[in-house]
Amino acid sequence: MSITRREFLKRGTIAAGAISLLSTTKIKGLTNYPKGWKGRERVQEIPSICEMCFWRCGILGNVDKHGKLLKIDGNPVHPLTHGRLCARGNSGHKTAYDPDRLKYPLMRVGKRGEGKFKRVSWDEALNFMTDKLKNIKEEYGAESVGFFPHGIQARFFEHLMKGFGTPNIAEPAFAQCRGSRDVGYKLTFGNNIGSPEPLDFENTDLMVFIGTHIGENVFTGQNLQFGNAIERGAKLIVVDPRFSVAAAKADYWLPLKPGTDTALLLAWMHVLIYENLYDKKYIRNYAIGFDQLKKHVKSCTPDWAAEITGLPASLILDTAHEMGKHLPKVGVHPGRHVAWYGNDSQRGRAMAILTALLGSYGRPGGIYLSSKIPAPHYPSAKNPKPGPRADGAGTIYPFGSLGLGITNGLVDATHDEDPYPIKAWIVYSQNVIQSIPDPWKTKEAIDKLDLFVVVDILPMEQFLYADLVLPEATYLERYDDLYTVKNAKIPFAAIRQPIIKPLYESKPGWWIAKETAKRLGLEDHFQWDTIEDYLDYRLSALGKTLKEIQNTGIIEYDKDPTPYYDFSKPIKFKTRSGKIELYSQTLKDYGFDPIPVYEPLDDVPKGYFRLAYGRSPIHSFARTQNNEILHGYMPDNYLWINSTVANKLGLVDGEYVNLENQDGILSDKIRLFITPGIHPESVFMVHGFDQKSPFLKLAYKHGASDTYLMSRVNVDPLSGGTGMRVNFVRIIKNGQPIMVSGAVSVVAKFKKTLKSSVPKKRIVVPEATQEAGESEEGC
Ligand code: SF4
């Protein structure tokens, strides 16, 4: 059943009437507006939200009298960033004015991959796309169209794809990033963690980071909160094989052997339980499965974990004691990009169980709860019932996200034409070649398509393979859907609005979706005339109009600002049992371990290193390498390698080498960064370099690509996410492999150095807490 336009407007009015009664809703004014830069010609400061990465900090665009964007500042009323921006946020205007931008709709005339196109009109482009989509739907069914979206601009098209009838919608935020973590926490507490991670930096006494890279994975708001916590005297434990920016601030740095995190987590649980340091009341009242957990971790002693992780047992013990001392004000950061080894949901669960033992979920200083903010549903006609998914979410991978999908599952299904043929892909603000591992397979999958459409801003590598290219307006040139943030102590909504007019023939996402809908006969999914109408409708839930918040860009909603559990009332967790599940019967029923178990990874082959990759504060994924300012700061990436290993191999800091992976794939050249701050078994590089599209004049062939060295993945059986740190590389110099003879002795030396730097202690298990019998599941 569809709703009419009159009904739609009526619903908006009712919602506005109801919410406007809320006296607690407030808008901050620009009263103490810091002027900052004062260009002579600046005539306007327009608030909006950044999209140089996915955090969407508040910005102010400084525009001159000719409508040119001169400079971007932070929006001082943004509740999380308070006027601060990172280097990328400050450089956004260079993306809008990038001379390499996609300027017009393009249709392929050469072979896929050749990059030969002809310019076409929007009418021709959209007619071509929609004719093809109709034919494919008729022949193969709506589910044979795969949609790969990213960002709030793609939401409109996502609604359209649902209206079209396909269930095959997938973005890498789940399978290549945070999905497994959310699965682990949901199975334990009944809730996803969400974004930004709700760690209570303001109140925490001790932060625990396991593969969390604040300072490199930059979100301005979280960086600020982290910095304030350190300044306030909060302690920090960092677990990371690499001496990261966060590790540099840590009280304890635990550079464990890559892939052994779960052993460390189980040993921490052992100490907390067997030394009676855990939060007994919290566990007694709100958790189930404690006895099974206690039995399970009985043999997971610090000595046991020391052998596996390469860390001194005393360091494991000391850090567990720190947690016991500071609970419940211990913030275990759930991590962000956590798709590492294929056992990632269980590691996420181990982190959640640790958080439970510390009694810090839903408590000040631990993990706070997300809040509610009203926003009416998208006004749409009823979607048709979709057919079965192709990506395995909910079937092969029982805990895979039905909302975010499994990108690699959709690539596999297209590649193998199993469970059915996928004949069209529409990629929207996503980069399928750089963000999904095994790009060869992705390209082979593209070869199976009858239609490959790319909606993007820049001619990234995927553009070379497209049948049709639609140039999107940048985030500085368009309205997008309302951005609501529930994982803030006071939830808020922010608008994105145009600061400058769309350049060339680029079009905003909402326009592309609406025009496509018209041609597909799906207008009922767009029951609004203008984007301003639509935003008014959504804002009506907050009792405001678009016009009323255009001068601030932000509206806070502080109706229910206490993001912690009220322990004076009964608490029901959204799990199957209604309690925190230390032991998961659900997992058991699916045939998985009900309590996480440490599973050793394959050894690093002799002469090779485990390839790790990550982020830099200068670039976002593979998205910003062509930005003139950011390219100037960081034109290419480096390969981190342990100094002891490098010396043994005769390598010199700054020299260029190539890498070859276990399957014989050779990288482009990359410079060495020789440092003691990385585990000898591992090398590390920043993701997103070695762009392979010659149309990106600055970024083309700078540095090496981690993605192209990922010809293997371990797929997480719970979530379907891709563990990508299972690839090994060796160093090639002057065309010859440099063999690491005696790698084992280098690792032994690294362990010895660590051991000698910390006082020796041994765990004492009080007799009264010891139990007869063996661990049921083992570690
Ligand atoms: S962290 Fe930086 S790039 Fe990301 S949204 Fe904020 S300012 Fe923009």
In short:
The protein has 779 residues and is of the alpha/beta class.
Detailed description of the structure:
With 779 residues, the chain is α/β, with parallel strands linked by helices. Among the domains are: 189-370, Dimethylsulfoxide Reductase, domain 2 (3-Layer(aba) Sandwich), CATH 3.40.228; 609-756, Barwin-like endoglucanases. It contains 23 helices and 28 strands. Helix 8 runs antiparallel to helix 11 (302-309) and helix 14 (407-416) packs across helix 16 (439-447). It is globular, with a radius of gyration of 26 Å. The relative contact order is 0.17. The structure holds iron/sulfur cluster (SF4). Residues 50, 52-53, 55-57, 85-86, 88-89, 218-220 line the site of iron/sulfur cluster (SF4).
Detail the topology: elements first, then pairings:
Blueprint: H1 5-19, E1 25-26, E2 42-49, E3 58-64, E4 69-74, H2 87-90, H3 92-96, E5 106-108, E6 117-119, H4 122-140, E7 145-149, H5 155-164, H6 172-189, E8 206-210, H7 220-232, E9 235-239, E10 252-254, H8 261-274, H9 280-286, E11 287-288, H10 290-296, H11 302-309, H12 313-326, E12 330-333, H13 344-357, H14 407-416, E13 424-428, H15 432-435, H16 439-447, E14 451-456, E15 468-471, E16 483-485, E17 492-494, H17 509-520, H18 531-539, H19 546-549, E18 554-557, E19 580-581, H20 585-589, E20 609-614, H21 628-633, E21 638-642, H22 643-649, E22 656-661, E23 670-675, E24 682-686, E25 714-715, E26 722-723, E27 728-733, E28 736-738, H23 743-756
Parallel strand pairs: 7-13, 8-9, 8-12, 9-10, 11-19, 13-14, 14-15, 20-24, 21-23
Antiparallel strand pairs: 1-18, 2-3, 3-4, 5-6, 5-15, 16-17, 17-18, 20-27, 22-23, 22-27, 25-26, 27-28
Bound molecules: iron/sulfur cluster.
